[in-house]
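Subject: sequence -> structure tokens, single chain

Hey, anyone have a minute? Need the predicted structure for the following. Not urgent.
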Amino acid sequence: MDFEHADALNQAIRLLSLRHRARAASLLAPLGLHPGQEVLLLELARSGPMIQAQLSEALGCEPPSVTLMTRKLEATGHISRRPAPSDKRASVVELTDSGRALAGRVRQLWCALAEETVAGLPAETAAALPGILNALTDNVDTRRPRHAHGRRNIPATETRRDGPAGRGAGPSVDGATGRGAGPSDDGAENDGAENDGAEN
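Reply:
Had a minute. Here:
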């Protein structure tokens, strides 16, 4: 690949990441959320209660970022945390009633953002985009192995043994690592989560 093509590709990916994140932030703000918190709510709504380390793995975020996000969402009453039955050092995270209601609103917003992002594209192109983008992510992912989309969907009662940081160990609050979620363009709110694109 020559430089002109490489530059065009890299710039397009960079700008899409920045603009998509900024647009998501503007849509989430009326809900009192920052980018990253919405995918945490959606993951819990989809998978049910999860050990915090498994949630970190599923989201593809570093454990400290997920810890900060869960603390803030717990403070606003949208999630609750309790000790894991199998390991008192670990925390099980689950949605509260208000969190489930908020996740429903986020789902609607998420659909609107996706439709806005692919507006004007042929339906076939829009349908193919997730596979293409996931393939690009796999090409630059230095933290394999993992499942597609960075998600594992491991029940909260199950011990994680197949993750990149698991090494046969049981669940722990800070024992998982996932993939990065792209650059941040609004670092004033990210509380040190720049490396994985999660707002806290």
